[in-house]
Amino acid sequence: MDHRTPVRGAVPRVARTALPLLVLALLAPACSGGVEGKPGASGVRDPYFPKLGNGGYDVSHYAITLDVDPDEQRLRGSVEITARATQDLSSFNLDLAGLTVDSATVEGRPAAVNRAGDELTLRADAKAEDRLRRGETFRVVVRYSGSPKTITDPDGSEEGWLPTDDGAVALGEPTGSMAWFPGNHHPSDKAAYDLTVTVPKGLTAVSNGVLAGPPTTEKGRTTFRWHTAEPMASYLATLAVGRFETKTSTMAGGITVFTAVDPEVAKASARTVARVPEVVAWEAEHFGPYPFSATGAIVDREDDSGYALETQNRPFFPGPPSVGLLVHEMAHQWFGDSVTPKSWRDMWLNEGPATYAEWLWEEEKNGTPAEESFEDAYEDEDNWAFPPADPPSAAAVSDDPVYGRGAMVIHKIREAVDDDEEFFALLKGWTKAHRHGNASTADFTAYVEKETGQDLSGLWKAWLYGRSRPAADG
Ligand SMILES: [Zn+2]
């Protein structure tokens, strides 16, 4: 619990949210020109991470330019954010953890920046503030520099900026992306991205999407330009800097396959990484068309981070992945990356289906029925600590019940449907209905009931929300 407000502690949270804006309101009149605006909220009231994200605007595009010095673990950069105001704004916030803000502009005019912890409050000057009226599109540029920080999650895992032996990797679930660029860091605000990264010659900078052109080298430094056209939640943005063996190919459907593997683990990873197109195609058969124009994988050394992450287009693996892990992270491209949770309470909508994808793979490829995986998960005490749709705290959003019991919910739906063709049509319909959008648990349960025509309130009560373990056939 360093910079984040802990879980559901209503009193300190309200106080901390209100304070910076209160101070600001006292220091300056709320409105100096034509806009009778109000400050954009400093958080979007996520039930677990209330200060993540910001209210009053919707980002459509991030153009991030970074110069990375891996020896010193420093970076210098700028972000140009294109956003649309969803209210008349007198000021608005961006999330940024660590780093130093060197300057900021709104519509090319110098903007005042007030910083309180991870919250930047920007106020446009009188000539630019008309662009902050509801419905208007505005451009913000923030220049920043420093040593990006590693963030320790409530559950003790590390994210944000993670130094590696030969560079660094940026991982952002659930809050880490604010460690390397200012933005609206909540999964509910998805945007397109362009990332231009300059690193010492000999190193590679890998990110999401596709390369917008060949890398260029000048004065011993190489620049990589990555373009992500499809909407992306900021926690799925990544940057891996280091020595990588890269391969580019095209699979069926014209999808670009870009893989980047640390040479130290290249041999041990080769067989699994070569199966990326096969796994994507198999999952497309079960979950619907692959939602993105690019896929691939980033495989770094085993000591780089303790966990894999479904970074968009290109999952990150700390060391050679198993096929099961590849299946899991790739399934997230549908469940999590394309259909993104509305809040961190809905994390099981990511992890339940991704875990179930592993069970399905075992069933079809290795002859272990999903029923057997269900029984193993059912017998595992760790899966019964809390209901998957209601983790007790921010520290628990990545705990076993969200995965194992989340997958059990999907299995119970499959049993209720009692027809595999209909069951997979249901999954495909879900990924189609919310493609490139956001969805909540309530959206999911309503969708399943509507499509199946069944009242499944008993199933939700027992498996999704119930505190005790129901009978396995209940
Ligand atoms: Zn997962």
List keywords for this structure.
Immunoglobulin-like, globular, 30% strand, 27% helix, disordered N terminus, 2 domains, 474 residues, binds zinc ion, alpha+beta
Fold and architecture overview:
The chain has 474 residues and is of the alpha+beta class. It has two domains: 10-243, Immunoglobulin-like (Sandwich); 339-465, Neutral Protease Domain 2 (Neutral Protease, domain 2), CATH 1.10.390. Helices cover 27% and strands 30% of the residues. The protein is built from ten helices and 24 strands. Strands 2, 3, 5, 6, 9, 13, 15, 16 and 17 form a nine-stranded mixed beta sheet that branches. A hairpin with a 4-residue loop joins strand 2 (57-69) and strand 3 (74-85). Helix 3 crosses helix 4 (323-331) and helix 5 (348-366) crosses helix 7 (400-417). The model is unreliable at 1-33 (pLDDT under 50). Bound molecules: zinc ion.
Q: Name every ligand kind in the structure.
A: zinc ion
Which CATH class of the largest domain is shown? Answer: Mainly Beta
| CATH hierarchy: architecture of the largest domain | Sandwich
Runs with pLDDT <50, length 5+? 1-33
Distance between the termini: 39 Å
Strand element count: 24
Helical content stands at 25-40%
Count of separate DSSP helical elements: 10
| CATH fold name of the largest domain | Immunoglobulin-like
Question: How many strands, which pairing sense, and closed or not: the largest β-sheet?
Answer: 9 strands, mixed
Family: Belongs to the peptidase M1 family.
InterPro entries: Aminopeptidase_N-like_N, Aminopeptidase_N-like_N_sf, Peptidase_M1, Peptidase_M1_aminopeptidases, Peptidase_M1_dom, Peptidase_M4/M1_CTD_sf
Pfam families: Peptidase_M1, Peptidase_M1_N
GO molecular function: aminopeptidase activity
